[in-house]
Design goal:
Blueprint lengths: L8 E6 L10 H5 L4 E8 L2 H23 L8 H12 L2 E11 L4 E8 L1 H26 L3 H16 L6 E4 L2 E4 H15 E9 L2 E8 L2 E2 L2 E7 L4 E8 L2 E5 L8 E6 L12 H7 L10 E5 L14 H4 L20 E2 L4 H15 L12 H13 L2 E4 L6 E5 L2 E12 L5 E10 L6 E6 L3 H10 L5 H19 L3 H6 L1 E12 L15 E2 L7 E6 L1 H14 L3 E15 L8 E14 L2 E12 L6 E8 L8 H8 L2
Parallel strand pairs: 1-3, 11-19, 21-27
Antiparallel strand pairs: 2-4, 3-4, 5-6, 7-8, 8-9, 8-12, 10-11, 10-13, 13-14, 15-17, 16-18, 17-18, 18-19, 19-20, 21-23, 22-23, 24-25, 25-26, 26-27
Length: 619
């Protein structure tokens, strides 16, 4: 069992531990309330590492003895538990230097109760992941639901004691309930090839007979495995090298999301590194349409074929009805414009569509083609032109964006036409249909112009990050904007979530989350570093609260009438991803919205609500 313990990570306190009532080393060794280790070495550091390694072995034995689950040999469960210990962070480890260098000797110890605390935190982590998965599932964010459920399963498998969770009014051990839940979800995903254009297969995906909002899958193109492809609003695409001889497209749904695991998340990364990941078959063979066009079979995973006993029902879906829109008249010229733009995308020649844009609109379109990945047209959407917010808005060209690491995003373009010149003033990536419905319904009692102003702003915001438009992002923040970012302290900082203690502010909430306050220029400089080292940055918004507020001042910033939005943000970039909650206060009275306040919080638990945030900074 040797070397695995040597990578154990501790947050320790170096001290002499010499209060008047201090126990001696021998007393600590004989006290069952403590775990301890002794180490030697030519240097103090070497002796400390030796002492920690010895203590870790005692911790591992103690933890394994707590376990009430094991396979017939006990080895699989034991390995998962021991690896979880080797990746753990313990607090309040104390050190005593027994002898100095060059014959250093160090004694380390901590209360046995610290081990219990670690697994209590892990139990909460498992339950939080499950609850997050339920919310995502109810919103048809099937990829996020599967990710949270699978990660909770991996954590539960490495926990020494069973953790009870509930689904569908049924309570049971997380290891068995999550396994069944994931298999049940896979059985309720239905895939269908809706069209085969040459060697391009266009796919539709439903879950529990409802169109998915987001889903990720990989496929065999006839030579290799491609993906993951991020399908959205029920649509995906597979580009094939050859059509399979059996007439079926082999795909697999992403459930592990191993590449998204934060290596500094000691719980999940340690559990993944145990080498005992549960295997769940997520593959499915999707039949192509027959040449006579009569067959349009939907494919389900192998779980459905075996008729899962006691299948867990889907979470009740949260459905919001799209608002009624006013369609534009005489749109033949706009339809031709969109077709010409699509030809420019397909030919990788944006200049061929230059005449259809205003100068500003063309610059944005050219940036999309240059920095948006390998952009290509996907499918044949139904076009719609509506009047809103002083524009004619054209919806929506379906595109896919491919990056070097194989990641593919399915997106939709929104065109905003000047109603007089009939030229495109701007292009943006559309929000998902559910996010759009959220905004429109949340602000249903407001004037229509206000609702569209918020929707257009959020589309532009996510597009600016995707295209790394620092100029635009800088322009939408007021010079004295209040910008606050949260950081989970237990994780080693990434460029995205760097914590600067010099910028720290007290903000309440969970103790393991620290907040930093940045000036506008500091925030823009930070973004530049992120954009420079990431091939792509992708934002996905869902689950929002929108309020009209009247604030004479926020932290001394005069805003007048303003909008506040609290929205869940899925952030994904090359080698890093996270979920968090974005709170923004912005004014839409000018030519373009101006952000006065931006707050990012990493966790729903203990999150400061929009109203609480406003009250705290109101003067």
């Amino acid at each position: 069992m040797g070397n695995v313990y040597r990578v154990i990570l501790f947050t320790f306190i170096l001290c002499s531990f010499t209060p008047c009532h201090a126990q001696s080393i021998e007393e600590i060794k004989n006290d069952q309330h403590y775990l301890w280790g002794e180490g030697t070495g030519t240097s103090t550091g070497e002796a400390e590492n030796d002492a920690l390694a010895q203590m870790s072995r005692r911790i591992s034995v103690s933890i394994y003895n707590m376990s009430s689950e094991a396979d017939e040999n006990g080895t699989t469960k034991q390995k998962a538990i021991l690896q979880s210990v080797s990746s753990a962070r313990f607090t309040n480890v104390q050190m005593r230097i027994v002898s100095e260098e060059p014959n250093a000797k160090v004694f380390c110890f901590m209360l046995r109760s610290e081990v219990t605390k670690m697994f209590e935190r892990r139990e909460r982590h498992i339950k939080d992941l499950v609850e997050t998965g339920k919310i995502a599932e109810s919103r048809m964010q099937i990829d996020e639901a599967l990710r949270n459920y699978y990660w909770a399963l991996v954590l539960a498998q490495s926990n020494p004691k069973p953790v009870d969770i509930a689904f569908d009014n049924r309570i049971g051990a997380a290891t068995s309930m999550l396994n069944l839940k994931i298999r049940s979800m896979l059985a309720m995903i239905h895939a269908q090839v809706t069209e085969l254009d040459g060697k391009n297969a266009f796919l539709s995906f439903t879950y529990d007979d409802k169109k998915v909002s987001t889903l990720q899958f990989k496929y065999n193109d006839g030579q290799s495995i491609v993906g993951p492809v991020v399908a959205r609003d029920g649509s995906g695409e597979a580009n094939l090298v050859s059509i399979p001889g059996d007439g079926k497209l082999n795909i697999s749904y992403e459930i592990r999301f191993r590449e998204e695991v934060d290596p500094t998340d000691m719980d999940i990364a340690g559990a993944f590194n145990s080498g005992t990941l549960p295997f769940i078959d997520s593959s499915v063979a999707v039949p192509f349409r027959k040449k006579d066009g009569k067959s349009k079979k939907r494919a389900t995973g192998k779980q459905a074929e075996t008729d899962l006993p006691n299948m867990i029902a889907a979470q009740p879906s949260i459905e919001k009805t799209p608002i009624t829109t006013q369609e534009a008249n005489s749109t033949e010229d706009l339809y031709k414009t969109v077709l010409d733009v699509e030809k420019a995308i397909a030919s990788k020649n944006p200049k061929s569509a230059y005449s259809h844009f205003t100068p500003e609109g063309y610059q944005l379109f050219a940036t999309l083609m240059e920095k948006g990945g390998d952009v290509s047209i996907s499918g044949r959407p139904d076009y719609k032109f509506i009047l809103a917010d002083g524009y004619i808005i054209g919806k929506s060209t379906q595109i896919k964006r491919r990056f070097r690491n194989g990641k593919v995003f399915m997106d939709k373009l929104v065109y905003r036409f000047d109603p007089h010149s009939r030229k495109i003033e701007s292009v943006a990536f559309a929000l998902t249909q559910r996010a759009e419905n959220d905004i429109m319904n949340a602000a249903a009692s407001w004037p229509e112009v206000s609702r569209w102003a918020i929707l257009n702003f959020m589309e532009d915001y996510q597009t600016a990050f995707a295209l790394k438009r620092l100029d635009y992002i800088s322009s939408i923040f007021s010079d004295d904007a209040l910008i606050i970012t949260g950081t989970v302290l237990k994780k080693t900082p990434h460029p995205e979530k760097m914590f600067d203690s010099n910028k720290a502010i007290h903000f309440g909430g969970p103790k393991d989350i620290a907040y930093s306050k940045f000036t506008k220029q500091e925030y823009i400089n930070r973004l530049k570093k992120i954009f420079d080292c990431r091939e792509y940055v992708h934002l996905l918004f869902e689950d929002n609260v929108t309020k009209l507020i009247d604030l004479p001042a926020i932290d001394g910033i005069n805003t007048g009438a303003a909008f506040g939005i609290e929205i869940k943000q899925r952030y994904e970039s090359t080698g890093y991803s996270d979920d968090g909650y974005l709170t923004m206060v912005f004014d839409t009275r000018g030519k373009q919205p101006v952000i006065h306040v931006r707050l990012w919080q990493p966790d729903k638990n203990g999150m400061i609500s929009l109203q609480e945030f406003i009250s705290r900074f109101k003067k």
